[in-house]
Specification:
- There is one protein chain.
- By secondary structure, the protein is an alpha+beta fold.
- α1 packs antiparallel against α5.
- It is 67% helix and 12% strand.
- It is elongated.
- β2 and β3 form a beta hairpin.
Length: 139
């Protein structure tokens, strides 16, 4: 058998993904948000409000995770929810002023994480890596 597993692309990619995950979550943790919270704050930053369904689509989260995340953000005063006047069962979510500040802080943490994980690469190398990883991810 004798295969050097450290030369296998799947092994190297898995190791890189593990390191990137650690760097990302450490940066987000220092900013005081989870990955799901960042995704929701980021999705809401570019719009006035979204339904929870739309937020889930924009943040690539399933409905249960959106519900829990929005509740956590709401309890911290970062988002507000109101019933959609045009649809009685739908909740509309928007950022509060504090949520916008927290979202900007989290975005800075994401930028720091990118630099920590990929700072050794040139811009051209990062672009090439991203294109290759996208091709692998799409199969």
């Amino acid at each position: 058998m004798g295969t050097d597993f450290t030369s296998l692309p799947t092994w190297v990619l898995s190791s890189a993904a593990s390191r990137a995950h650690q760097v990302l979550h450490a940066s987000l943790g220092r900013a005081g948000v989870t990955g799901y919270e960042f995704r929701c704050l980021s999705a809401l930053a570019s719009t006035e409000r979204l339904s929870q369904t739309e937020l889930g689509e924009a943040a690539a989260l399933d409905p249960r995770d959106v519900t829990h995340t929005v509740r956590a953000l709401e309890s911290r005063g970062l988002v507000s929810r109101v019933k959609d006047p045009g649809h009685g069962r739908r909740q509309l979510v928007s950022l509060t002023a504090e949520g916008r500040v927290e979202g900007e802080r989290a975005a800075e943490a994401i930028t720091e994480a990118q630099e920590a994980a990929f700072g050794g690469l040139t811009g051209e190398e990062r672009t090439a890596l991203l294109a290759l990883l996208d091709r692998v991810a799409r199969g």
